[in-house]
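Write out this protein's structure.
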Amino acid sequence: MTYSRILLPLLLFASLRSNAQSIPAIDSTVQAFMTQYQVPGMAIAITYHGKLVYARNYGYADTLHKIPVNNNSLFRIASVSKCITATAILKLVEAKQLSLDNTVFGLHGVLGTTYGQQPYAPNLEKITIRQLLQHTTGGWTNNGSDPMFMHPAMTAEQLISWTLDHQPLVDTPGKVYAYSNFGYCVLGRVIEKVSGMTYEQYVKTAVLRPCGITGMQIGGNTLEQRKSNEVVYYGQHGEQPYIYNISRMDAHGGWIASATDLARLLVHIDGFPAPADILTPASITAMTTASVANPGYALGWAVNPYHNWWHSGSLPGTSAEVIRSHHGFTWAMLCNTRTDSSFFNDLDGLLWKAVNNPATPWKE
């Protein structure tokens, strides 16, 4: 890794200021959204052709102490973490340390027989890295019986063994799409086994630092474990943000990040000409090619035929979304609360009007 490789992303974001010049059409839209859904604090960052063109912070990171959101504010990004894990897996593939078609469990699998009781069921030994990324393993859905929200005192390793022993697959691997947080937890352990580092260490080394990102990290579980610059999370409708094992969610939902750091990541995996991506064109094609089981999901990204990619994330007290549009924009949106389904629909649509309007006065 060279100094110039890190310097470039820093230069692209060099003009970043907490009090960026306002674009009233965006600010009024965001503020109306926050009022409607009682959002205490929010951060957005927008890039165009690899350059940061808008970064704006709204409301409070901590309402009790009246601490405003700023460019360094870190939010839980929940399932947006899956994009990061997918990128890390593809870095290992590029290094020829892994193949997307490697099996995961069993004598010939990446993780061998480390977890659970043997002998494994035949279908378990068929699961591949690609299928974990695509949510096509054949089980472990997050609909009602998500292992990642069970047994909070267990480590990730203990939970994997428990799940293999107590939640058998229900479909043949590769045939059916079923969104699985647990599958990405397994991918985190794959990264650790292959790289020889902790999951967090490998991601920071291979993915984040080459993008000039130093603030992102795995979050803590409780209010007392809140990291420096991390916002406070506010549950609605009785939700409790601080009762979950967030650190165990590392590879599927454990990262905390600022909006601008997510923007830095996006411009280095977006497939646009500049700045240089940290993944090869072949890896980006693989990452954004939908599975047969679900034409709307690829490897860690939701996709559509218009060459837009995105991923949302949600936990009690937090919501996040990152979007890469086909016409050169990427953006990140972070909130320190969540509420009903209309909230997520409106968050998804919040900035499309601005990025589709050629008259929007972006800062160059």
